[in-house]
């Protein structure tokens, strides 16, 4: 899709997300509530077999992670969907992002299907509840999406970010220095082991419980995640964010992250922290997954709207108020 029409679509998508989930000015349209942490990452020897990406050649480098709640309401309780947005700070001043979810799959596999889902859920009047009957009809006609909603409804909630596995959902093309290409999804696997709890238990807790837990933990000890590639086999769908691959695909650990302390946007020098998942480096390429492709525009529109950017004047100087 040409980039300018992608941005027009993205504006429509962000506006519809806000109509369904609520508009909280200054916050991300999704994953509205989150906190930043800092640490380091070091790739191991295996990484080089799969990619020539500069941050995966074995040198230790700084990272930040924004852990977040999945929804649009920053004051909501935690649920079973949480996010982990990692930024790697490269030696030459560039950054690259790796964005993951506690869920394995996304709820649509094309832009039309996602917009169809939003349209089905739009409230009858501004500020009204989502159209549940419309969503039910949509899901009956879209079994791939219905399966993911079901899977998400049955998934446990985190007890701690440090005990949660995160998933890239999308598959990427990993390219080595020898030009060997490998299709793989990736995961952050908690070194402390995976544990969950019923989502209802989180509703009894403070709305910031998982951040408080992590901060207490970090005051005692660092928190580690292994970066793991899950290798596709011939015939596995590589551009369908609603399709699970069969169990038992080969998994290779390619590095370890060590988180040590809370951080702030001020520490990073980037007050907006747009974790665009298509900010990649040579050696990791996007597939043709249309959901991955549209995310670039969507995140830019959401970042612009929450920072007062291109349509509302820039808070850091310059820019025109409408
Ligand atoms: C069409 C599909 C999607 C749409 C429309 C969408 C929309 C959004 C929006 C608007 C934001 C806030 C951006 C900002 O203001 O910085 C966001 C953040 C996020 N999204 Fe998505 N998203 C989609 C798919 C996905 C998928 C497949 C994943 C799986 C990895 C994902 C994971 C996240 C995470 C972890 C964040 C938080 C980023 C941060 O902490 O800064 N999203 N998404």
UniProtKB/TrEMBL annotation:
Protein residues bound to heme: 299
Keyword Iron set for record: yes
A single cellular component GO annotation: cytoplasm
Annotated keywords: Heme, Iron, Metal-binding, Oxidoreductase, Peroxidase
Cofactor(s) demanded: heme
A GO molecular-function annotation: heme binding
EC number: 1.11.1.-
Positions annotated as active site in the UniProt record: 31
InterPro entries given in the database record: Catalase (IPR018028), Catalase_core (IPR011614), Catalase_sf (IPR020835), Catalase_SrpA-type_pred (IPR024168)
Catalase core domain ranges (all copies): 1-320
Source domain of life: Bacteria
Region called Disordered, residue ranges: 262-287
GO terms for biological process, alphabetical: hydrogen peroxide catabolic process; response to hydrogen peroxide
Record family assignment: Belongs to the catalase family.
Task performed by this protein: Has an organic peroxide-dependent peroxidase activity.
The protein's name in its UniProt record: Catalase-related peroxidase
């Amino acid at each position: 899709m040409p980039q300018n029409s992608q941005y027009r679509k993205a504006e429509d998508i962000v506006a519809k997300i806000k109509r369904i989930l609520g508009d909280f000015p200054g916050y991300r349209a999704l994953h509205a509530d989150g906190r930043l942490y800092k640490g380091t990452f070091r790739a191991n020897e295996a990484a080089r077999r799969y990619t020539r990406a500069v941050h995966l050649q074995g040198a230790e480098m700084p990272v930040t992670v924004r852990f977040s709640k999945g929804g649009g309401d920053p004051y909501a309780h935690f649920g079973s969907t949480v996010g982990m947005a990692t930024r790697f700070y490269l030696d030459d001043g560039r950054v690259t992002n790796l964005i993951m979810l506690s869920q394995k799959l996304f709820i649509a596999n094309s832009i039309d299907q996602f917009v169809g889902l939003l349209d089905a859920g739009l409230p009858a009047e501004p500020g009204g509840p989502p159209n549940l009957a419309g969503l039910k009809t949509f899901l009956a006609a879209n079994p791939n999406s219905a399966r993911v909603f079901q899977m998400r409804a049955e998934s446990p909630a985190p007890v701690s970010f440090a005990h949660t596995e995160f998933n890239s959902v999308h598959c990427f093309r990993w390219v080595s220095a020898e030009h060997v290409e490998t299709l793989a999804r990736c995961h952050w696997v908690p070194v402390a082991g995976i544990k969950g709890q019923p989502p209802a238990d989180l509703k009894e807790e403070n709305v910031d419980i998982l951040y408080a837990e992590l901060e207490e933990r970090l005051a005692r000890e660092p928190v580690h995640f292994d970066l793991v590639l899950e290798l596709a086999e011939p015939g596995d769908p590589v551009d369908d964010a609603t399709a699970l691959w069969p169990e038992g695909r080969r998994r290779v650990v390619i590095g370890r992250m060590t988180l040590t302390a809370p951080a702030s946007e001020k520490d990073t020098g980037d007050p907006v922290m747009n974790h665009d998942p298509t900010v990649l480096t040579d050696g990791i390429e996007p597939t043709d997954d249309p959901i991955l492709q549209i995310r670039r525009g969507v995140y830019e529109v959401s970042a612009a709207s929450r920072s007062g950017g291109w349509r509302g004047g820039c808070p850091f100087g310059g820019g025109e108020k409408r």
